[in-house]
Amino acid sequence: MDLDARPGTASLTQRLRSMLSWSNGGDAVGTLVRTHRAIHSGADASILRHAYRIAESKHRGQLRKSGEPYITHPLAVAQILAELGMDTTTLVAALLHDTVEDTSYTLQELRRDFGPEVAHLVDGVTKFDKMFYGQDAEAETIRKMIVAAGRDVRVLVIKLADRLHNMRTLDARSHASRQRIARATQDVLVPLCDRLGIQFLKRDLEDAVLFHLEPEAYARIHDHVRHRPHWKEYLEEVTAQARAALRRDKVDADVRPRPRHYYSIWKDTVAGGHQVPFDLPRIAVVVDGPETDCYTALGAIHGLWRPVAGRFKDFIASPKNNLYRSLHTTVIGPGEQPVEVLIRTEAMHRAAEYGIAVYYRFPKATAAQAAADRADELAWLRRVLDWEQETPKATEFLESLRGDLAETQIQVIADGRPVVLPAGATPVDVAYELGTEKGDCCVGAKVNGRYTPLSAPLQEGDVVEIFTADAELGEAGRGPLREWLDFVKSPHAQMQISRWFSDHNEPTITIANKVRLGRAAIGLALRRYSRGLATEEPLRRLATDLGYPDLESLLVSVADRKVAADMLVDRLIAQVDHQPER
User: Fold this and answer.
1) Burial of 273 per CB tally in 10 Å (0-12, 13-18, 19+)
2) Tens of pLDDT along 27-47?
3) Is residue 486 annotated as a catalytic residue, yes or no?
4) 49-53, 155-159, 384-388, 521-525: segment of lowest average pLDDT
5) Closest Cα to residue 440, out of 368, 499, 524?
6) Among candidates 137, 40, 50, 115, which has minimal Cα distance to 82?
7) Global model pTM greater than 0.90
8) Which three-class secondary structure state does DSSP give residue 330?
């Protein structure tokens, strides 16, 4: 395959130059600062340089599998985030994101040097130690990341940038490793990126996945894109005609080509069963005015070219679940060639490109609507956190997360509010979204005012009313039916129904449970001395002193009775009581 076809491939000369810049103390962080200040002119460059110096000194001597100095990775991750437009705090965390995991730099030191906000972001993307957590390490790490994102979604944004750079540099790994990482990216991180609405990162992640999982298809599409006949000239003609039509209808708009990325072409090619890459010309119309101008622009486009029946979608009136908003239409353009047209406002265009990151890239422009929009955008994350609290096994949580992310979603109305569910969900899924008790006692449902079987799949926009045994019918409350497991779609409903039928089984002791048990054992031991801890810092220092990679590993050892809680408390008291005054 043509080496230039690889996503993010650098020439040998470029790599040698970059390695020289790391080793000779050049201004390696200068590009990062310039990129960041081009978007955030008042950004504090000194804290970025300070973070880089610490990261470089801690990673000094470490090499990536490619042979490059390790510091090239966190610097590249920070650069991706700077191009995305993230804030200074996120970039500082990106520079330091592997220090706690891979160097002697502790989380306590990081918190002391950069504050609790940066420490939380770094801790959120720090993987659990496989020596202590074994096969559950990956699932526990993802669970930890999701929980941390519940407090600050920037944890997920850093993780996505981290994975993107790793995907760009996978060529140094074995074939099996490349396949494993690419599939994990496809199953979890690409859908997470989609839920956050960050097309800026999603396009590159998907193209990298395609390169590693379907190299022959990637090569064919790459060749197609390089040799499309008259593509540039055709799009120039389309955009010129569209601009003229919009001017006639007095719509102020920017019209630009919007070519598809490789993965999008491949997906449409496979879905349509095409023998050659299926790649329709596409333009974006970005109107400078209120959203009503989008519909005026649509009229102008349809007046110019004949619309294709069944190819119009209104994501302004009915936004996608990640709050993507735009009008989509396909028309028969010049030369009887189908052309796809996207129509949106500038604010919609920004949101479509940057998703949740738009609030960091354009903080002043989005301040008025930010709070409400961000709450809506992260509704899916709140649902996932509900499952996390109710799922003792991290592996079960990960499987539920993968299933939820893989599903197309629909939105229905129940109890006067929107409820987001996997496609094919039923009234029983709705009942459990409204509350566990309502789900357990569900006996019937109305959909759009008509009684409907509980197993009937719901459609987008349905209005659902749930009836329960105790409230509506005056009967004794009862539990779910086992056959419901054959048709419910949401992980939440599946877990709650399964739990009902396994209530009398002894629960499995998971790592998360062990952490709680260990913490409780230490708390009880402290109470015997009428003592307590205002923060966990003394415990974290003690974990480091005893050679544990993190506090959670120490707490697991306490739960497993490998370390006595009383012994730890004795050392804690001695450590706190004899701490020198400052």
Assistant:
1) exposed
2) 779 999 999 999 999 999 999
3) no
4) 384-388
5) 499
6) 40
7) no
8) strand
Contacts (Cβ under 8 Å, ≥6 apart) of 183: 213
Architecture in CATH of 3-213: Orthogonal Bundle (1.10)
Whether 547 shows a pLDDT value over 90: the answer reads no
Residue with the two structure tokens 């609030």 = 359
The answer to whether residues 397 and 494 touch, using CB atoms and an 8 Å cutoff, is no
Question: Measuring CA to CA, which residue among 472, 558, 554 is closest to residue 521?
Answer: 558
Helix (H, G, I), strand (E, B) or coil at 150: helix
| Three-state secondary-structure class, residue 447 | strand
Which of these is catalytic: 83, 102, 373, 399? 102
Strands 409-414 and 282-287: unpaired
74: nearest Cα among 57, 90, 89, 52: 52
Among 44, 101, 249, 390, the one annotated catalytic: 101
Q: How confident is the model at residue 407 (pLDDT cuts 50, 70, 90)?
A: low
Q: Do domains 228-356 and 407-501 have the same CATH topology?
A: no
Report the percentage of the chain scoring pLDDT > 70. 82
Residue 551 has pLDDT above 90, yes or no: no
Mean pLDDT of 402-410: 71
* pLDDT tens digits, 415-466: 888 788 888 899 999 999 888 888 888 888 899 988 888 999 999 889 999 9
Task: Check if CATH label 3.40.50.2000 holds for domain 228-356.
Answer: no
From CA 304, how far away is CA 301, in angstroms rounded?
5
Q: Which residues pair with 339 in a beta bridge?
A: 331
Active site annotation includes 407: no
What DSSP string runs through 521-552?
A: HHHHHHHHTT---SSSHHHHHHHHHTT-SSHH
Q: Where are the domains of the chain?
A: 3-213, 228-356, 407-501, 511-577
**How far is C-alpha 504 from the geometric centre of its chain's CA atoms?**
36
Average pLDDT over residues 370-395: 64
Q: Which CATH class is domain 407-501?
A: alpha beta
When pLDDT is cut at 50, 70 and 90, the band that residue 159 belongs to is: very high
